[in-house]
Amino acid sequence: MFIELGHFALTLALFLALIQAVVPLVGASRRLAGWMAVGRSAALAHFALVALSFAALTHAYVTSDFSVANVVQNSHSAKPMLYKISGVWGNHEGSMLLWVLILALCGAAVAVFGTNLPRELRARVLAVQGMVATGFVLFILVTSNPFARVFPAPLDGQGLNPVLQDPGLAFHPPFLYLGYVGSSVAFAFAVAALIEGRVDAAWARWVRPWALVSWCALTVGIALGSWWAYYTLGWGGWWFWDPVENASLLPWLSGTALIHSAIVVERRDTLKSWTILLAILSFSLALMGTFLVRSGVLSSVHAFAVDPARGSFILGLLVLAIGGALTLYAVRAPALQGGGLFAPISREGALVLNNLLLATATVTVLLGTLYPLFMDAIGGAKISVGPPFFNRTFTPLMVPVLVAMAVGPLLGWKRADLSAALQRLWVGFAFAAAIVLIGLYIGGFTPVLAILGLGLAAWTAAGVVGEWAERVRLFRLPLRDSWRRARGLPRASYGMSVAHFGVAVLVAGVAASAFEQERIETLRPGEHIAIAGYDLALREVRRVPGPNFVADEAVIEVRRNGVVIDEMLPQRRLFTVQRQSTALTAIRTSLVADLYLALGEGDDQTGWTVRAYHKPIVSWIWLGAVIMALGGVVSLTDRRWRVGVAARKPAGVPAAAE
Amino acid sequence: MRRLIFLLPLLLFAALAGYFAFALISGRDPRELPSALLDKPAPDFDLPSLLPLGLTEGQRLSLAGLKGQVVVLNVFASWCAPCRVEHPLLLRLARQDKVHLVGIAYKDRPEDSRRFLAELGNPYRATGIDRDGRTGIDFGLYGVPETYVIDRQGHIRKRFVGPLSATLIDRELLPLLRQLERP
Fold this sequence. Notes:
The structure holds 2 protein chains of 2 kinds. Chain A has helices spanning 2-30, 33-62, 69-74, 81-86, 92-113, 119-143, 167-196, 201-232, 243-268, 272-295, 308-332, 347-377, 386-407, 418-424, 426-443, 448-471, 479-488, 491-512, 620-636, 640-648; strands spanning 517-523, 528-531, 534-545, 549-560, 563-568, 571-575, 580-584, 586-588, 593-603, 607-616. By secondary structure, chain A is α+β, with helices and mostly antiparallel strands. In chain A, strands 2, 3, 4, 5, 6 and 7 form a 6-stranded antiparallel sheet that branches. In chain A, a hairpin with a 2-residue loop joins strand 2 (528-531) and strand 3. Chain B has helices spanning 2-26, 63-66, 81-95, 110-120, 134-138, 166-181; strands at 46-48, 60-62, 71-76, 100-106, 127-130, 146-150, 156-161. Chain B is α/β, with parallel strands linked by helices. In chain B, helix 4 (110-120) links the parallel strand 4 and strand 5. Chain B has 6 helices and 7 strands. The interface between A and B is large, with 55 and 49 residues.
């Protein structure tokens, strides 16, 4: 009953999306206030209906309604409640419904929080979002209906893929989708601006918070995915350049470029067509990620069930959305007024450099991801590029980004003095050099690149502190004056500092991975491994029952200097329904280092494979990502986003007659 | 001229979309072999074997040495994440004693491959080292992992691109092996 209601609500939502796509657009071009106002109500109603339909599917999962095909395929009555709920988006159909729900949420957010936008712009933005929503709701209804029933209903479900039954992964897709779909708002703003034929500082000021929200969510989503890979796959890796990971990294890279280039539009009223292109590109890459994962064009660990019909449909959507936007861009963008030239050594010059490097990195990762396909198409030798390609091309691009990141914020707008900025950073340079020298002294030149990486992280962090000190005139004014200045700095400025500091933390974590140690041994109960000053003794391996699995659990005693400091319990779980096993690693984490244990195959006679890793500051990778996202959030609380809008009103568009 | 620059993104996207359409239509299932080598003799190879697993010192893994038996050839690498996902299935497959499963470590340092197998268990009766990826190119390798079924005459009968799944093994691989092993 609920299920049919959900199906019906989604069908109705399709029609509302159609109305949202057409009526406000016509209203905006004809200046019909009533027609434009329809966009707002349509977006809210559309959101309510999609939310109802999502709730209906969630209800079916929570109550284990096995007359619904989707529930049968992806749930099981013995599954813990958390995974019953996360099972809703742990499959193709449900995840598309979540996608559409977040899209509708973004539309509703524009409708609610966009009251200070000029009416035409808001109507057009909502119309573009309506078009995207129409396409995706239609996609669900035609090719991926989650509401299909089965008759007769089976007694129990087939269960969720055990690899997905994990708290980290339960929350990974919602964040990732919020990031992907959030970029649709910037996209809608870009398309609306192209239709209007006008981009100005106020436009950039409206777009940036939306782009920031999407960027923060994407940052958290990618970090969660990477963290999940780290602690569940049981081999200590945290990033492996898999096509699906790349699909999430691509919109992140272009989104990072976008939030920086929008600053230039806002402050200097230039770089407009480039910023528009980045906004279109970010959403296009997010859509392409969806396409690649679901069409089966690239195969990957994460890939959902392959279905060419779905692939063709998404490709059609892709061509309409991206092709349409880019056509509009080709026609309208040349007419956008640029705001004059600027000096290479200036704040905007540094931001352009940042954009060039990030765009190059985006193209590099895109090429590396699609290269095997291209080679296949032209009939050449088929070559897989693998991580070596990315490590060799991506890393050298990130080095200048980091070097410039410390200097850029110290440069003034329009014209700046590079040597003066560098002089202010001499403390930072000395700090970085000291880190490198200490590293070389202790490490003995072995992983020289990693030590330089740590130096780079130190340089970036020092740049952040140096920039802040410069702004508050630390030690040059009395401390009380500095304190007053520090409190007076805009939140956006703190947001930047926090986010850039997060980058430094992340880079340090990545660089330090070269110092990890690993031991892989076959142990019988009573035997030991020594790693990084720890002594690990396998006491026993016991059978432990779980709600929907049985596990072999190793009891490993951790000693340091002869004293027992901990007992770690890595497990190997066998899921009974799917007859599939997963590893549950035991990790002793701290800001200094992680001690990471995973249990492999084996038995008491021949011994158990135990893998032990000691990873210095590996947790900084995710900590850094969280700090970056936090910086974005701090920046979002800046009052400029609310106050800045009023600044346009006097010079704004004459209001159409009500 | 200036307009052309603004047209560029559209043109690039058109090329990409055209390519996706091609990939979608031509390669109906990306896990199927594009017919080039199907039912043709497998490309010849003769590789040093990974020690000390399987073969004794100085022995090699070669096509000639495998003739006369139905072979499942799995190409893997320690740096390949999907291989780790697939690995438990290979271990289970290897336990069925009729399946002659051999591995090729593609573009991988031998010590890394050895550690990979020590860590996850070794399903292969023998493992060849394809250090420079030459054999991979001969096979038209698209990526790792890939799995080939080679019959008694040394002809490729099936290719699986990407990680095997339990369904693929049960529905396609095992029935094919049963059919090929019939005298």
